[in-house]
Amino acid sequence: MEICNTSKQETANEELEKLALDDEPDTRLGQGTLSFNEVPEVHSQAGAHIRSWAKVQRGTVGEDSAGPVDVTNGEIMRRPVLKFEVVSARTVDHNSEKKHVAYTIMVRKDAIQPDPNPAVIERRYSDFLELYESLRREFPSLMTSVTFPKKVLLGNFAPGVISERSAGFEALLEHIITEDRLRESSCLLSFLQGREQREARQWMEAQRYDQAIPLLENSFRLLNKLHTDRHPSVMLALCRLVACCSTDPVTTSAERFADLALRRYEAVSDADLLQFYVPLLQLCVRLWWSLGRDKRPLEARLEDLKRRGIKVDGCRTLFDALMALDKN
């Protein structure tokens, strides 16, 4: 009977995990050329870019020239392969910055069918160059086979140059993910989430949580494609998302991501991550109470931690703890 109950609990957790990760904006690509233009009167750079994906024509998973194909979730997620693809490039000519080309990178985890919910980031040549040079300094022996697109004095905006650079950027990222040390490097983490994290922080400091949430969610989903579910960078990204969602009075996503964070923390042993566990539990106690859910199991967990000598009273909120971490 105990084995049966354990099996049922594991199945329930798997279903909840799938629900939390699958319930996201549909950004599947249809046919045609992508175009990304910042929304008028929206001052967010990365945020507006991410929201613009909602305007892209959507396809259907499993649809081909012969008509729709019945594809199950299990088939979609079988034998996943991480893929970086430059899907668009646009010329940016704002008064506040030098004219340049911004490249949109789509990050997918494809299986039998393409990943229906890719993550997207936008980067320029100098961002890729910084990533390449940082990795070459730190891991010279792992970067000898990589050829990086050279700078040109004229013609930066020519289609041929943009196409050649796009291919070079894809090759660089594909190489990085094949080497564990490169994949785990702080250089790559900064490249993938640094810009969005800085902008999200600015929005949170301005108490515009609705603007920060899309940035944090995109970063979480991107890192979750690159790393395991309980990888430190993934867990921190998830905690940032939970903290921001719980502060926004409008969003309905706080409970879903808080549930996901609690489940993942059950198997976490990383000391740096455990410092956020008590604030997460305390946040969930308040959230469960506001939603009419039973908060007693969470309170019992906090009491157990207290008996084991872990500080529970007088802790920072999860939001404040993460904001302090990101300042360092």
UniProtKB/TrEMBL annotation:
Keywords: Endosome, Lipid-binding, Membrane, Protein transport, Transport. SMART domains: PX. One of its GO terms (biological process) is protein transport. One of its GO terms (cellular component) is early endosome membrane. InterPro entries: PX_dom, PX_dom_sf, SNX20/SNX21. PROSITE patterns: PX. It is found in: Early endosome membrane. It is a peripheral membrane protein. One of its GO terms (molecular function) is phosphatidylinositol phosphate binding. Gene3D superfamilies: Phox-like domain. Residues 81-199 form the PX domain. This is PX domain-containing protein. It comes from Cryptotermes secundus.
